[in-house]
Every structure is written in structure tokens, then in C-alpha cells.
Amino acid sequence: MEKKNGKQNPTDEGDEKAITKKSSPPEGEVEVQETSPEISPPKPADGDGEMPKVAKARSEQSDAASGKGAINNNLRHYRIENMMSKAELARKAGLSVLTVARIEKGYGCRMDTKRKILKALGLKLVDRRMVFEDE
Length: 135
What we know:
Shape: rod-shaped
Mean pLDDT: 74
Order of helices and strands: EEHHHHHHH
Strand order of the largest sheet: 1-2
Structural class: mainly alpha
CATH superfamily of the domain at 60-131: lambda repressor-like DNA-binding domains
Number of helices: 7
Strand content: under 5%
Radius of gyration: 35 Å
CATH architecture of the domain at 60-131: Orthogonal Bundle
Number of strands: 2
Distance between the termini: 97 Å
CATH class of the domain at 60-131: Mainly Alpha
Low-confidence stretches: none
């Protein structure tokens, strides 16, 4: 490059074009910059560091499923002893399969639901303590 009047001028116009071609992507292509997203841990909803209400409710549900605070029952034992699937027991009792599964996990249920389950298993109401130990 030559200097004229204190300014730099390229001597060859081809050099200038080569420089501009290197700085821009070719036609039809888009320059993509890869960036990794910043992931930050969830912040507590309250200022005092307590768990949000939704998280508390979910942890309480998982406690019942894991056996902490769960209601003991022998429903699964009696269902398998009678060679019944959850779906078959639910159909005979007039309940949903989800309800039967929840009760087997230890979630509570209403008296009417317990009565329906006992009748579907072919047990008498007097035998309720054999299946549901919470009473």
C-alpha cells in the first residue's frame, strides 16, 4: 500500500476486494454464531428461600408414593391373589385404573371406594381390615 497525502491507498484494487470477500460470508449462506445458553438454577418464589407452593405439593405427592406418610394396604396382594389385573379390578369395582393404582401406592380414598373394592375382590365388609390397615 502506498501513502498519498497521509492516507493509505491500496495499490491494487484486487487486494481490497479480497479483503472484503473474507469478511463477509459467500452469497446464499448465512453466518451462524454458536452460543451456549446460560442455564441458571431456579430461584425460590419467596424471598426467604422457601420452596414454591407447586414444588411443595409435588414433594408431598412423591412422599406418599415413596412410602413416607403412605397409608398401608394389602390391595395389591389381594388383587394378585385373585389373579386380577388393575384394569379388571377397576372395571368390576366401577373405578378408574388410575384410582386403583393410586390406592395401591398408598394414597387415601373414600369409604365408598373401599366398599366397591372389597365387593369386587369378593370380600365381605367385615374383612376390610385385611385389605385396608388404616382403620
